UniProtKB/TrEMBL annotation:
This is Phosphatase. InterPro entries: Prot-tyrosine_phosphatase-like, Tyr/Ser_Pase_IphP-type. Pfam families: Y_phosphatase3. Belongs to the protein-tyrosine phosphatase family. It comes from Lactiplantibacillus pentosus.
Amino acid sequence: MEPITNLRSLGGHRNRQHQVVRDGLLYRSGQLDHLTTAQINYLASTLKITRIVDMRSRDERQRFPDVTWAQVDYQVLDVLAQVTQNDASLQTMITSTGAVHDRMVQLYEQLALDATARGSYRQFIQALLVPNEPLLFHCFAGKDQTGVGAALFLKILDVSETQIMADYLLTNEARAAANQQIIQQYAAQMSPDQQRAVNEALVVDEDYLTHYFEVVQEHYGTFDAYLHTGLGLTAAELQRLRQLYLTD
């Protein structure tokens, strides 16, 4: 079976209390618009995924609709719905040039502070409180909205910053072939400057996620305050998440 781009489990990490994140419950990936029959069977039968959370914009969902199957529940959480320019979308990557790093840093600030983004991440965490129903979440590339969602989940479970960043940066390796295919597909439409910008926009940088957590610290004081005040999550919900996803 051809691998599904940027698909991986968030299980197996050991937190600071030496508890292990349960495997087989939460997965992240890129968009699911061209799944083969074998890939569908793998997701549905082998991984037993029963829920998909799509964090993409309406335009992305219309242009590249997910392939789903009869037994899966599909939920949309448009994280960047109220953001003026979605720098995480393929179309923006192709048409923009210059200052990619600065634009992406700004995007991650919006992921931390924008009201719709915060509401979407609250709903994402709440969706994880359903027991024994494996869930897959994704955006276009599985790197920005998805990357922050994965980092939030792991940090709530008290996984170390080193492990969180390692999972985040693994996207660059997992997307290498897919990114090259995108560059080749759109090369004729892009100037050399645009090609360089797209190359940069298709990868993640440690600075982006670091800035996200710096913004959280600056505006909310602590990560716990962000969870309670910024995302509106209750202590009971956070405790339930830890009970469901951590094992000794």
